[in-house]
Amino acid sequence: MTKKKILITGASRGLGLAIAQKLAADYSLILHASKPESFTTTIPGADILCADFSDNDQLTDFCKQLKKQHGNELYGIINNAGVTFDKPLTFQPEREIDAMLNVNLKAPIMICKTAMKIFGLNQTGVIINISSVVGETGNSFQSVYAATKAGLAALSRSLAQEAAATNTEHTIRVLSVSPGFIETDMTDAIPETYKDKYLAMIPAKRFGKVDDVAETIAFLVSDKASYINGTNIHINGGLI
Question: 240 lies in a domain?
Answer without folding.
Answer: no
